[in-house]
What we know:
Protein name: Glycine betaine ABC transporter substrate-binding protein
CATH architecture of the largest domain: 3-Layer(aba) Sandwich
Radius of gyration: 19 Å
Keywords: Signal
Number of domains: 2
Signal peptide: 1-19
Number of helices: 8
Low-confidence stretches: 9-15, 163-179
InterPro entries: ABC_Gly_betaine_transp_sub-bd
Shape: elongated
Largest sheet: 3 strands, antiparallel
Amino acid sequence: MTLKWTLLALLSLASTAAAKPIVVGSKLDPEAQILGQMIVLTLKNAGLEVTDKTNLGDTGVNRKAILAGEIDVYPEYTGNAVYLFPAAKITAKQAGSPGVIYGFARQLDVKNGISWLKPANVNNTWVIAVPQAFASAQKFSSVADLAKYLNGGGKFKIAEVIYNIQHASAVDLKPTGRT
Length: 179
């Protein structure tokens, strides 16, 4: 799935920029920190006063901060609209289409007074990395091969950074029929 970064900004950002510093937030991961710093530098180079709150926290922390008016802008994945708007019941197919998910995010956040700016032209496709010896022994060449292995009773441990907690946790996965 291709996820694109977009910037979330309060609609009032332009009108309040001259009145108070623009507060820039970002998530904890290196990509978000770099993008946050790029926003800070771009705004400063444009002569605007900026308060740097990059490295603020995970998705939930930044989301709460922008909704509360504590930050004015932060970089976000368009694909995170699936998690930000669970009641919208966005399907996997819809979430896999960058244009569709961006349209949903823009539309769903209007009522919150938040505008999703045009997405950056970047790609953050996720993969599952496994040791080469394990992949060779099991003849893995795709995620479908891994799913077949798990559905056949194979054991597997995965460490995943979950957005609503700030550490990795290892879990012994057992076949559940989930994808």
